[in-house]
Design a protein that fits this description.
The complex is a heterodimer of chains A (275) and B (245). With 275 residues, chain A is mostly helical. Chain A has twelve helices and no strands. The longest helix of chain A has 42 residues. With 245 residues, chain B is an alpha/beta fold. Classes of the chains: A mainly alpha (275), B alpha/beta (245).
Chain lengths: 275, 245
Amino acid sequence: MVDQPGFFELIGFFHDALVVSLLTGAILGPVGLFLHLRGSLFLGAALPQFAGFGFVVASVLAIPEWIASSVTIVFFAVAAAFKPLRKFDGMTLEAMIGLGYTAAMGGIVLLLSLTKAEGHAAELLLKGSMLAATCRDTQILSWFGVPLVLLLYLFRRRFYLVSLDPETAGTMGIRVEIYEIVLFAALGMAIMLTLTEAGAMACFGFLLLPPLIALTLCRRVGTLFLASMTIGAVGAISGVCLALKTDLPVGPAMVLALLCLWLAALVFRGVRKPS
Amino acid sequence: MNWVEFDRVNLGYGHQSVVEEVSFALPVGSSVGLAGPNGAGKTTVLKAMLGLLPVRSGRIARDPAYRRATGYVPQRGTITEVFPFTLEEIVEMGLYGKMRPWAVPNGAHAEMVRATLERLGLAAFADKHFRDLSGGQKQRALLARALVSEPGILVLDEPTYGLDLAQTQGFFELLASFRKERSLSLIIVSHNLHELVMHCEYLLLLHQGRLAYSGPAKALSDDLLSRIYGMEIRLQGGTPEVIHG
């Protein structure tokens, strides 16, 4: 009879998953902060679906995933900016994002059913494959994700102003359109880097919840960025540990961990005396 | 010397033309009101003046010395209050255009912010969240943000929207004192014609996308106002009043 590995043995065995999850949370958390500031959370839900659709197309056409998902994200951005479409009744920007979100999600399931790989859809959309993370995934996230976050941190004041009040930023001579393109590109890149491991649902969960928790706890804007990173990382690692302990899928476990952190933040905020 | 000149400018969005054949010149040091009914094109002209909207035809010339020396006070409601920005942080943003994108505000910047807050009577609220300020305080905060970089031109979009009579009077008094101290050129966009006639030297009155009047604020005629607003209006001591009955 084979002894079941202990929890800490599992942690040691899946150490790559822990590191990748930490990087995932630390990258997506601060990126999501700007979505909150811009009131564009729906975009944060839709973009992982677009990237996921690109991944599926890549597997069908046997082309690199980053190329296919970049094409689908850029295609979406161009379509959303295509002004003639807006002339039709009801075609607000939000409606177009929703349209794309639904089409991408349906497209993923349909395309995978055609290739008899429906199970992969569940992995991609819901569960992620964090436990299958390797040293190479850690390297890719480190090489591309860390500089991305550093760039956002270094230029955060400009991004805050451009997101908060683009008109005033424009009158100061700041090239608002360039910062918006960089932010959108950062969002797309962060999702492409983390989608396979986290899954589309957890991707959105990390864009939404760590900044929300940070906003609940922090009284100063100066602490929001680092708080979002830290909460993202803690939520991610907690989720992986929970999944290993309880044999649950990692993506939803990470979302559950973040939800628990959010509830704890609400309680803490409720009992904390106002300054 | 003029800081901006519009020469037969046409403006619009997409295929829709909003403003046509508008020509005027604004002298340095003047205070100008931009008025007109809803949909007349005030905000469109304002955006073009600020360089935020390209012309479809015509020419806008800005004196290079004043190109980057413009302070802008947007409508108060455009600032989202989701994030816990303090008053000091909001005002500090007025200096970002003069800093490198990655720069951290230093002691000199902090001193400029502090001095501006004191001048506007807001120093005691520096650490308070912007969203917790009163309407009048928020408007003065946005004015502080525009003034902290010491602009030569100040552009205000509906600056007294939502303010009561006392707050409005206080706001214009503050504006007048800054204008005198710093020889500011002012552009004020407002629905409130009375305010513009009382506080501006010149008036640009837009009607259906065209410039219906350009001249001294107090030289407006009853007939022109009545025609533009579609009701009988008389100017009583320089103040427009609607005649009922």
